[in-house]
């Protein structure tokens, strides 16, 4: 089954890094997206904040360069995460992160 998401936005919260008991590095941050989209022939504003997780070492060189305000594109898949208090949220699991040039 297809599960792909590409979202552009700005890093809006600092990166948090944790290492799992098995030694895998998990980096997480929040991506804020704002754009105008067309729906039913009308222009509307789209806005969201999405939690992003990058696991493993393949994206660490990019993650180390991220700061709050970085404009990036994230490509990956979404999955549901449940917090300790039982609340669920969708999380974007990054497989590719690209810096965007201002004005794109």
Automatic annotation (TrEMBL):
Keywords: DNA replication, DNA-binding, Primosome
Lineage top rank: taxon: Bacteria
Keyword check for Ubl conjugation: no
InterPro entries attached to this UniProt entry: NA-bd_OB-fold (IPR012340), Primosome_PriB/ssb (IPR000424), Prisomal_replication_PriB (IPR023646)
SUPFAM superfamilies xref list: Nucleic acid-binding proteins
Membrane-spanning residues: none
PROSITE patterns: SSB
Pfam families in the record: SSB_1 (PF22657)
Family: Belongs to the PriB family.
Function: Involved in the restart of stalled replication forks, which reloads the replicative helicase on sites other than the origin of replication; the PriA-PriB pathway is the major replication restart pathway. During primosome assembly it facilitates complex formation between PriA and DnaT on DNA; stabilizes PriA on DNA. Stimulates the DNA unwinding activity of PriA helicase.
Assembly with partners or alone: Homodimer. Interacts with PriA and DnaT. Component of the replication restart primosome. Primosome assembly occurs via a 'hand-off' mechanism. PriA binds to replication forks, subsequently PriB then DnaT bind; DnaT then displaces ssDNA to generate the helicase loading substrate.
Protein name in the entry: Replication restart protein PriB
Provenance organism: Thorsellia kenyensis
